[in-house]
Amino acid sequence: MKKQLASFRDFLATGKLGPVTPGMKLIEVAERLGSPDGWNIDDGDLIPVYWFFGPLEISFNSIAPYQMNWLQIEGAAQLTGKSESLTEQLKLSLDGFSGETKPSEFLAAGLWDTTQTAVYYGAASDDILLNICAGCIQIHFQVATAVIGDREAIEYLNESTLSQLVRAIDSRTKVDSIYSYSQVAKEEMPGAFNWRSLTGQDYLDLLR
Length: 208
What we know:
Elements: E1 4-7, H1 8-14, H2 26-33, E2 38-40, E3 50-53, E4 56-60, E5 68-73, E6 83-85, E7 90-93, H3 103-107, E8 118-124, E9 127-134, E10 137-143, H4 153-159, H5 162-169, E11 173-181, E12 196-199, H6 200-206
Parallel strand pairs: 1-7
Antiparallel strand pairs: 2-3, 3-4, 4-5, 5-11, 6-7, 8-9, 8-12, 9-10, 10-11
């Protein structure tokens, strides 16, 4: 099976990870990547429909022809250096990005139309949640909570202006995971955590 080098920039811009495209059937992924390192199978499923290849995880529909729901790079905070091996056949060229890349740096990289890109943020207990949705791509970020102090996250959000919030958290983020969906990405659980949003362009403007 031919070894391939995928571009991280191309993945972020298009959702295509080298030879793997969201919406592919399970058999097509197997033909391109070979057997997974492991899988999970739920009760009632005829075959395993959750595969993982190191940091690359893929979810398939449980009904034949087992079309891909999404793929994700898990533990993306660990991405460093020039490239990352995802499978024996597939290596990812990081193209200057890493797990330390900030939301503002992704937004300013010319990957997407920032007026059509959404930045979602919200609070869950002691955590601030933030993700970028651009086309079929969704990037989840970890936000260091030291900025909150001894307050609840929702209290901190309510007491901060949007400008104060963006300036405080942008530099305190790390990439958590990156999803590519077979449809347009949106906040993971609509209605949960009182999601709020702004465009990517508005986010950048608040940092100027």
